[in-house]
Amino acid sequence: MEPSKAPQELLRVDKLRFYFGAHQVLKDVELPIWGNSITSLIGPSGCGKTTLLRCFNRMHDLYPNNHYEGRILMEGRNILDKNEDLIELRSQLGMVFQKPTPFPMSVYDNIAYGLKLKKITNKPLVRELVEKALRQANLWEEVKDRLRENALGLSGGQQQRLSIARSLAVSPAVLLFDEATSALDPISSAKIEEMMVELKKQVTMVVVTHNMQQAARVSDYTALMWLGELVEHGETTEIFTRPKKKMTERYVAGHFG
Amino acid sequence: MRTSKPHWGRVWRNRVALTLATLSAVFGLALLFIILYDILRHGLSALSLDLLTKDPAGPMSGGGLKGAFLGQGLLTLVATLVGAPLGILAGTYLAEYGRDKKISKVILSICDLAMSLPSIVVGVFVYSLLVKPLGGFNGWAGVVALAIIMIPLVTRTTESLLSMVPWTLREAALALGSSYHVVIIKIVYRKAASGILTGVLLAIARVAGETAPLMFTSFNNNHFEFSLSRPVASVTVTVFQYAGSPYATWIDQAWAAALVVTAVVLFLNIIGRMAVKWRG
What is each CA distance from B120 to A57, A139, B125, B126, B221, in whole angstroms? Predict the structure, then answer.
């Protein structure tokens, strides 16, 4: 996968340390996230990749006794700042979870939910944005006749694409994927991978995955983490074919993890 | 491995325990059916439309208990309007905002205790709070007594139902840029709505047949008026008074009224429990 031309740095993780209580989970992580590209975070379970992902949209703030040190820069501002407006931040950095999370309402209302939060209530406009989001998530053709049905009736793969469409509807700058395809069958996950590559035109994606082939297939950049540290980061082809570190070579070859 | 002989002591202990448990269950159920049979036998013969549509009359001239039924309905309705929202809000605090706090565990234990509090204790408590200082029995005191019985029930069901809603659902909504209270109202409540309604229904069923908390608070009234500042007529207190009277007509009416209350409570319970099953 060729990275898009003249990439711009959208996010920069700068000496990030993160603590659950007294326990340090992230150790001086340095990582650039390039715009309109896909960055994979790989590494063995417990290496801190999901913890890092959840720093970007400040999900850790929902739970007590956590704290951040260091910075994550976005357009020059530190989004880890205590005064950051988290509601605004989270509408700019969407997140897709491991398990599909359809809200207990119709397919249409699921997508319109985020638009309502952004005070977009003009009906023709909402309808247009709902359709656009569902098309971007490659779901429109399958659900266009069941928009009023409860979203819980969709299949697992459809529910996951619905969750993605819901995040896309509020036009975020970044989409964070937390093992978003690991609970799906191969055909459903292939559909999502295909969609992710399409989506690069509009959003930047950061993807936590246990699936090394997936990282190699879809991502432009790959970062390997181990025990809370960033081992190596670079273009995906480099990481998988000519890694600089011995540990990276062993990990991508499946020798540990 | 050596073959084990039957341990006769254990086998017999088991048989004795099983027999005792079965006997107690049969005893309890038999009592329940005798009560139901008795209410049906006496109540059906005195049951008539007059009971629900006519005002009370003297012991010799028939009449009905319209006011008592309306009064009981009013007390239960207002108690639900007061108790259900308070219970739902308390349950919301315990399951959402206070889920990691020690105080929540303490409140939940107190809730469990309050659920098994004898209702007459609540009656006497409200008597000393809202009847004696105000100089007389009044409907509001009855409402408060019933609401006090409802609140822990509704709090408990709300708390347990909200806790069953998966956390990832809240995280997904928050990750879209919702504030927490919007997530609770729009997502969590919706997911738990049918269960919370069932809980409220069962709490209504619980208070609809209460006598003791009303005897000390709203007491009784021969006439029905839409006012809670004076004593309010209620079926259960009327049954208590009529059943102890020397007049055959009143005793018959007490049986019939008891039958109606039992039927309503049974109906609410069955609906509530069926709703629980439908939710699967």
Answer: 54, 60, 8, 10, 20
